[in-house]
């Protein structure tokens, strides 16, 4: 017996048209897509006019397990992911202990098999303990299933160490994923350096702290032949550098978050720097940076959307702006807010281009299954209601995190059904 999705509209990723098609899932595979498929003993889910998309893939998520289970666990984070339409998430290694050994990779896969509501692809750290001093066993991490390597949360400050990491990664065909931040330039900053940080008297993090490191790592990628993926791009010059690297034919890819596409430091200004739910790293920047990210997304410089889902406890986020931890949650509304603002309201991006940034491109860039709803493909499917309007409601989150500046915002395009490898993982 299969799972029959009946009466929905399947998004054609090439033309952007919505086609009335039934989709039959058998086992973990999409076995048939046709105008009308007989119920024939299958479990039928009626989708009357709802929109069928490939399951979303988020290459930047903090699941916090092991070590910070008060913020999130693999169970709660993947439930949140499924609720947001995600079928795969890649989890960051800045846990305690850090995910820096093959055993840690195995741990993530084992816990996910028991408790997970989506596929979890662990990142292995570049340096032991993310301390920036000694390289991990990159080959061992890869064999144990690391999707790529990164020290997200901190930048690798040593250029010679990064050069060596890229040499090894290139020889193993492992992508190097960078949190680009020059610690010396970023120092004790807690928000974007500029007119707002000056007015509020808060220490700033200049865009240069990001772009300078991206420039270094693009040159290292050029020299070593490594695939470089730039995390959470946020600064206008950073986008320009990635655009240039691509024009030179280098293997450089990047992601942007919903918050860097839709928000600026003006929301910190408006709340006088008193709400740490607006504190994130890289920080919300100026309008020209936001527009550069948006243009980069539109012209293909930016390959994909990633949430950088970074849950923290309410207590931590109630601390003063200077000392509260950086980070926003995002899994449960990323598609909705971006669909609403970029597709529905401004029309800057057609739906199928947005969906490529959420599913097709991450699959292609990281060589993963999914990203398309096709016969014979893996049954990773997300069904959304493009009409229903709701507000982003943190008290309803499956995530343990509540920290988002999007709280209370109205949006359309909510997930009603998520299927991961043929299994229903969320149903509204
Ligand atoms: N993005 C953040 O503001 N915080 C992340 C770390 C990171 O992604 O660099 C976290 O782990 O909390
Ligand atoms: Zn980061
Ligand atoms: Zn992160």
UniProtKB/TrEMBL annotation:
Binding-site positions, Zn(2+) 1: 60, 62, 152, 308
Cofactor: Zn(2+)
Protein residues bound to Zn(2+) 2: 152, 179, 232
Biological-process GO terms, alphabetical: 'de novo' UMP biosynthetic process; purine nucleobase catabolic process
Keyword tags: Hydrolase, Metal-binding, Pyrimidine biosynthesis, Zinc
Enzyme class: hydrolase
Record pathway: Pyrimidine metabolism; UMP biosynthesis via de novo pathway; (S)-dihydroorotate from bicarbonate: step 3/3
One annotated Gene Ontology cellular component of this protein: cytoplasm
Superkingdom of origin organism: Bacteria
GO MF annotations, alphabetized: allantoinase activity; dihydroorotase activity; zinc ion binding
Residues that coordinate or bind substrate: 62-64, 94, 281, 312, 326-327
Classification via NCBIfam families: pyrC_multi
Main function: Catalyzes the reversible cyclization of carbamoyl aspartate to dihydroorotate.
Family note: Belongs to the metallo-dependent hydrolases superfamily. DHOase family. Class I DHOase subfamily.
PANTHER family cross-referenced by the UniProt entry: ALLANTOINASE (PTHR43668)
Name of the protein this chain belongs to: Dihydroorotase
Organism, as annotated: Tumebacillus permanentifrigoris
Gene behind this protein: pyrC
